[in-house]
Design brief:
The protein is built from eleven helices and ten strands. The protein is of the alpha/beta class. The chain has two domains: 65 residues, no CATH class; 193 residues, Vaccinia Virus protein VP39 (Rossmann fold, 3-Layer(aba) Sandwich). The strands form two sheets. It has a seven-stranded mixed sheet, with helices on both faces. A three-stranded antiparallel sheet has the order 3-5-4. Helix 6 packs across helix 7. The protein is globular.
């Protein structure tokens, strides 16, 4: 399959799925490889025939949609974001929770892929925030993704060393048991993390959440009308004063005024307290 052929196919079909070509431009090869496998499975001769197959078989569109799930992730991805979470947001939320005698914080990692983001958050919480608070409140994390296979990897908690390349060495030593080929997340850092198979377009966990991380998903791959619909429902899941973190290269639609940038950040927003 030639790149230009796959590109033209995606540009035609993604809008039917309410997805944006702009989000897929740099990662299209992941989808193109899956398309090639699917075409071989169906015994078709190429993309043009597959396009005709789509038009006459409505049940194939959900399968195409599943082929468009991007599964790129790693620990400590966009470390500047985790630096702000560690130095400012998590301590603030922890102190507020202790002042109000809350039972703990609840976080949602949306589009969690293989669990790297959720585990990174728990590593930071247990390693830095609990000692800072001089207390041991739990951070409970709900992690969701539409892809069953990546969720199974997340539950196992086994990773190639390359997935940890952005994680500071001291945190790797603290949180992982590593062999030459695999690193396994240690049991204390698996606590209070639950993984659920959900399509954010159709359902969301109950909440309410003190912190929601929705990075490199909704505001990268979905079309603008779908973005607006989903972000409004996401914000409803936040407690007053709760935080929403999006990708460093993403932006929330201008019409959404229920959250405002936190300390002039372009990717961290806070819901009004009242």
């Amino acid at each position: 399959m030639q790149d230009i052929e796959c590109t033209e196919f995606l540009q035609r079909c993604l809008p039917r799925l309410r997805l944006r070509w702009a989000g897929y431009r740099k990662v299209r090869q992941q989808v193109c490889k899956r398309l090639s496998r699917r075409i071989r499975e169906l015994g078709l001769s190429g993309l043009s025939v597959y396009q005709s197959y789509l038009e006459s078989n409505a049940e194939e569109w959900p399968i195409l949609d599943s082929l468009c799930n991007i599964t790129i992730s790693r620990f400590y991805r966009d470390h500047s974001v985790f630096n702000v979470l560690q130095s400012s947001i998590l301590p603030k939320l922890g102190e507020e929770m202790l002042e109000t005698r809350g039972k703990g914080l609840l976080c949602w990692s949306a589009g969690c892929c293989s669990g790297e983001e959720a585990y990174t958050l728990q590593i930071i919480w247990k390693t830095f925030i609990i000692p800072l608070l001089h207390a041991n409140p739990p951070l409970r994390i709900i992690a969701t993704d539409v892809d069953h296979a990546v969720l199974e990897r997340a539950r196992k908690g086994w990773y190639r060393p390359s997935s940890l390349r952005d994680l500071p060495k001291e945190l790797i030593e603290e949180a992982f048991t590593c062999s030459e080929k695999l690193c396994s997340i240690r049991e204390p850092f698996r606590e209070n993390i639950e993984f659920f198979e959900q399509d954010i377009r159709k359902e969301m966990p109950d909440g309410p959440f003190h912190l929601i991380l929705c990075r490199n998903l909704v505001f990268t791959y979905f079309d603008e009308t779908l973005q607006r619909d989903i972000v409004e429902r996401i914000v409803e899941k936040l407690v007053p004063g709760g935080f929403l973190v999006i990708g460093t290269h993403e932006s929330i639609p201008h019409e959404v005024i229920a959250v405002t940038p936190y300390e002039n950040s372009r990717c961290i927003c806070r819901k009004a307290i009242s």
